[in-house]
Amino acid sequence: MKSTSGIIGYFFPLSVKPKNQTELKISSKLPCDCTVEVLRVICADIDPNGPGEKYEKVSWFKKQKIKVKNQHINLGSFAIIDPAPDIVDNKIIKLQLSVFPTMRKKTSQVIFHWGQFKILINNQNKLCVVKESDEILIFSKIKLREWLYLELEINLREKQISLFSKYLSPFSNIDEGIVNKIKINDLSFPRKSEPIIFAAARNNHSEKIKTEFHFNGKIDSPKIINENKKIISYWDFSEGITSNKIFDKGTQVTNGILHNVPMRAATGIKWDGSCHSWLQDKKHYTAIHFHEDDITDCMWETNIILDVPAYAKSGYYIARLANKTVQSDVPFFISVDETVHKSDILFIAPTATYLSYSNTHVKFDSHNTENLFEAPIALSEDELYLNKHRELGLSHYDTHADGSGVVYVSEKRPILNMRPGLYTFNYINDTHIIKWLELKKFDYDLTTDYELHNLGTKLLKNYKIIITASHPEYYSTEMWNAIYEFQNNGGRHLYLGGNGFYWKIAYSKNFPGVIENRRGASGVRTWEGEPGEHHLSFNGELGGLWRTNGRAPQTLVGIGFSATYFLKSTYFQKLNIKETTELNFIFEGVSEDTFGNFGFRGGGCVGLEIDRFEHNLGSPKNTVLLATSVGIGSAGLLTGEEFITTTRALDGSQHAHVRADMVIFSTSSGGAVWSTGSIAWATSLLWNNCENDVSKITENVINRFLKPEKIHLIDTV
């Protein structure tokens, strides 16, 4: 069997429109040759017992052979000031800053590096000042997660270096502080041409920045002052929070750049719990949280520039990289040109969800994975490779090495669980819908979350129907608003999944290819954000669940996340809707009262993650409950936001909220929404070559939604 990880790569941008370009960047373990072929993905499920993988060769890209090499990844976030301040006219300078260490390590962690000088935490967890490679001042062991004020003085007049340190609290002084001094005869200041690095050390002087010994923790308000207490530089981290820049308020104005997007909108030394948004009072948010494993841009060289012709069909695509020992797929998407109307149906690929799960390590790092599946974990080559090669970055489900949650993820790196393979969640499940649309010969266009965020209703307005996929979990405000407006302007929406519209995210023009997610204090989550740090740095909005932001998924699609159900899958029971004759089309040709007792994920159409109807959470008053799940039992686990007090009655055999509901409702101007309430619905469509009730019901709804006649449902409460 060929390796899937011997050669890896990524496209940027991930989503490209016809008549535009995207760049393919490739790296291999050893220099080698490989062929590159572009394929449209119709079904990416490689399971021999599955619905059958299928790809289509494109005529507009000729298969070619190229040479590839290993490309370096500079892992870890840091700040660089280049050029540095000019201090040659001074005799004494002081560097002042506060730090909040979050991790002990067996290697050094550099807080500050300028020329021959470093302030670091050494491999014995002691605070040190280093000149060249010598530890000239050594303090006692540092305390984790406590603010420590530092003042490094370089005194040419006395030929002396000193470091003052003092633990601080926004509530009271913790100690009086200590100072260590040392005489050095050949003392000199760093030069302006030598960049200042915060949170790492520079390990060479090549044009391409390489860093090492990254610091894990927060840094707050660095300043450089002279003997007359004149501020030469003051980098105020509370300024420019939405950008990758750090701004100098000193006399020389030596601004800096952040690499690999360390966490901004981080609480600083002055945060005292009285403020919870950086927009409310920036003086509480003067810190940046750096991590040794931040990565938002591999910065690889481009191997192929891909020109997408005007006639290219929108869809899921891969570049297949192959040689005698390797077959590795690199995903990208061609999104429809919104100015060219091609069909009445638009499928929205949930790329924000794919990115949030990208390169997840939960099988290795989370104690809860086997509990959810109630089975031993199977590991693929890709997952084993990701566990060994953490330089490829983390997902929103992971925590950094210091235990803090991952808030930024990026498409500018290889993503090994967003392609054909054994990781069936999300991407592969959604291609079941693509193959079903193809087999049923529905004419459709495809776009991505990125385009939806940027274009909003301008993208959607020409379509009769939009289809959201099996798990559109992550949504920005712009995306949510666009769907809502489309529905209320007469558009029809098929939501073919579960646990959708759940987490609130943000994009930023300052960070192309990056999305931000802040886990709040509710919801199914593998980590919880720190107090005071729940507001998104990209736009200042409160993060967390859409439900806790006042927009439960029920307000958009009639149903919302209720339970996980990973052990197996079950089926639906029809409810009595005979009095609503306008809805007879839904179950036309479906003779049985139960349906969906089959599928490629757990043997049923109700499974994985499921949603329920609830007027009190915003399900529209005219929502009709079409079907509900049966037979879930104790394997169904209620989601955390659905209960307040822990009891023994929280599983599907005892709690009424552990269920999936299928609903339909109408909106103003002739719009309508049909929601299936289950991720596993999508993976039942192709069962028995589409000759099944799940397929029939979905086809019925699409055919009716394509007709111009209004669907008018009266309020039920």
Keywords, please?
16-stranded antiparallel beta sheet; 12-stranded mixed beta sheet; Jelly Rolls; 3 domains; 34% strand; mainly beta; 10 helices; Immunoglobulin-like; 43 strands
Give the SSE map.
Elements: E1 7-12, E2 15-16, E3 21-28, E4 32-43, E5 54-57, E6 64-68, E7 78-81, E8 92-101, E9 109-114, E10 117-121, E11 126-131, E12 134-141, E13 147-155, E14 160-168, E15 178-183, E16 196-198, E17 201-202, E18 211-212, E19 217-226, E20 231-236, E21 245-248, E22 256-259, E23 263-266, E24 287-290, E25 304-307, E26 315-322, E27 327-334, E28 345-349, H1 351-356, H2 362-365, H3 369-373, H4 381-388, E29 408-410, H5 427-439, E30 444-448, H6 449-455, H7 457-460, E31 465-468, E32 474-476, H8 477-488, E33 492-495, E34 503-507, E35 514-517, H9 554-557, E36 559-574, E37 594-595, E38 606-613, E39 624-630, E40 633-638, E41 651-652, E42 661-666, E43 672-675, H10 693-706
Parallel strand pairs: 2-27, 28-30, 28-31, 31-33, 32-34, 33-43
Antiparallel strand pairs: 1-3, 3-25, 4-5, 4-6, 4-26, 7-16, 7-22, 8-13, 8-19, 9-10, 9-16, 10-11, 11-12, 13-14, 14-15, 17-18, 19-20, 19-24, 20-21, 21-22, 23-24, 26-27, 29-35, 34-35, 36-37, 36-38, 36-39, 36-40, 39-42, 40-41, 42-43
